[in-house]
Amino acid sequence: MSEAVKPTERPETAGRPFPWFCPRCRRREVWRETIAYECRRDFRGEPVTVTVTDLAVPKCRNCGELVFDYLAEEQINRAYAAQTQAAGDRNGAPATVPVGEKPGPG
Protein backbone atom coordinates (compact mmCIF):
# COMPACT_ATOMS: atom_id res chain seq x y z
CA MET A 1 0.00 0.00 0.00
CA SER A 2 1.50 3.36 -0.99
CA GLU A 3 1.61 6.39 1.28
CA ALA A 4 -0.49 9.45 0.50
CA VAL A 5 1.44 12.44 -0.78
CA LYS A 6 1.22 15.54 1.39
CA PRO A 7 -0.29 18.58 -0.40
CA THR A 8 2.94 20.57 0.05
CA GLU A 9 5.10 17.94 -1.65
CA ARG A 10 5.58 17.90 -5.42
CA PRO A 11 6.44 14.40 -6.56
CA GLU A 12 8.53 14.26 -9.75
CA THR A 13 6.36 11.42 -11.03
CA ALA A 14 3.13 13.47 -10.89
CA GLY A 15 3.53 14.65 -14.49
CA ARG A 16 5.54 13.54 -17.45
CA PRO A 17 8.78 11.83 -16.42
CA PHE A 18 12.10 13.47 -17.28
CA PRO A 19 14.03 13.79 -19.49
CA TRP A 20 11.84 15.65 -22.03
CA PHE A 21 12.64 16.54 -25.63
CA CYS A 22 13.78 20.14 -26.04
CA PRO A 23 11.54 22.23 -28.34
CA ARG A 24 14.58 24.22 -29.49
CA CYS A 25 17.39 21.71 -30.16
CA ARG A 26 15.21 18.56 -30.24
CA ARG A 27 17.53 16.63 -27.92
CA ARG A 28 16.19 14.64 -24.99
CA GLU A 29 18.04 16.75 -22.44
CA VAL A 30 15.33 18.67 -20.53
CA TRP A 31 15.49 18.18 -16.76
CA ARG A 32 14.00 20.19 -13.88
CA GLU A 33 16.63 22.53 -12.43
CA THR A 34 16.56 25.29 -9.84
CA ILE A 35 17.70 28.69 -11.12
CA ALA A 36 17.47 32.39 -10.28
CA TYR A 37 15.00 34.02 -12.68
CA GLU A 38 13.73 37.52 -13.47
CA CYS A 39 10.93 38.62 -15.78
CA ARG A 40 8.87 41.74 -16.36
CA ARG A 41 5.12 41.96 -15.77
CA ASP A 42 2.73 44.90 -15.66
CA PHE A 43 1.31 46.17 -12.37
CA ARG A 44 -1.14 49.08 -12.47
CA GLY A 45 0.04 49.92 -15.97
CA GLU A 46 3.72 50.05 -14.98
CA PRO A 47 6.40 47.42 -15.69
CA VAL A 48 7.57 45.51 -12.62
CA THR A 49 10.56 43.19 -12.38
CA VAL A 50 9.53 39.89 -10.80
CA THR A 51 12.43 38.01 -9.22
CA VAL A 52 12.33 34.37 -8.18
CA THR A 53 15.54 33.35 -6.43
CA ASP A 54 14.91 29.60 -6.68
CA LEU A 55 12.67 28.81 -9.65
CA ALA A 56 12.29 25.08 -10.33
CA VAL A 57 11.86 24.94 -14.11
CA PRO A 58 12.56 22.37 -16.84
CA LYS A 59 15.77 23.39 -18.63
CA CYS A 60 17.65 21.85 -21.54
CA ARG A 61 21.13 20.74 -20.52
CA ASN A 62 22.26 20.97 -24.14
CA CYS A 63 21.13 24.45 -25.28
CA GLY A 64 19.82 26.09 -22.08
CA GLU A 65 16.22 26.54 -23.30
CA LEU A 66 13.71 27.00 -20.46
CA VAL A 67 10.52 24.97 -20.91
CA PHE A 68 7.94 26.58 -18.64
CA ASP A 69 5.35 24.25 -17.18
CA TYR A 70 2.47 24.82 -14.77
CA LEU A 71 4.68 24.37 -11.69
CA ALA A 72 7.15 27.03 -12.86
CA GLU A 73 4.33 29.40 -13.83
CA GLU A 74 2.74 29.00 -10.39
CA GLN A 75 6.04 29.92 -8.71
CA ILE A 76 6.29 33.06 -10.87
CA ASN A 77 2.66 33.97 -10.15
CA ARG A 78 3.23 33.61 -6.38
CA ALA A 79 6.34 35.81 -6.59
CA TYR A 80 4.41 38.39 -8.63
CA ALA A 81 1.57 38.42 -6.09
CA ALA A 82 3.97 38.81 -3.16
CA GLN A 83 5.96 41.57 -4.85
CA THR A 84 2.96 43.53 -6.09
CA GLN A 85 1.36 43.27 -2.65
CA ALA A 86 4.59 44.71 -1.23
CA ALA A 87 4.45 47.47 -3.88
CA GLY A 88 0.86 48.27 -2.91
CA ASP A 89 1.96 48.57 0.71
CA ARG A 90 4.56 51.15 -0.40
CA ASN A 91 2.01 53.42 -2.11
CA GLY A 92 2.57 52.00 -5.59
CA ALA A 93 6.38 52.09 -5.72
CA PRO A 94 7.84 49.50 -8.10
CA ALA A 95 8.42 46.08 -6.56
CA THR A 96 11.93 44.75 -7.06
CA VAL A 97 12.59 42.87 -3.79
CA PRO A 98 13.19 39.17 -4.59
CA VAL A 99 10.90 36.66 -2.91
CA GLY A 100 12.64 35.13 0.07
CA GLU A 101 14.82 38.20 0.71
CA LYS A 102 14.13 40.99 3.16
CA PRO A 103 14.01 44.57 1.90
CA GLY A 104 16.79 46.84 3.05
CA PRO A 105 16.25 49.86 5.31
CA GLY A 106 14.53 52.89 3.84
The mean pLDDT is 81
State the secondary-structure class: alpha+beta
Low-pLDDT stretches are 1-11
Provide the helix percentage.
Answer: 10-25%
Describe this structure in words.
This protein is an alpha+beta fold. The chain has a domain at 34-97: Ubiquitin-like (UB roll) (Roll). 19% of the residues lie in helices and 27% in strands. It is built from one helix and two strands; from the N terminus they run E-E-H. It has one helix at residues 70-89; strands at 30-43, 46-60. A two-stranded antiparallel sheet has the order 1-2. A hairpin with a 2-residue loop joins strand 1 (30-43) and strand 2 (46-60). The longest helix has 20 residues, at 70-89. Mean pLDDT is 81; it is low at 1-11.
Strand and helix map with partners:
Layout: E1 30-43, E2 46-60, H1 70-89
Antiparallel strand pairs: 1-2
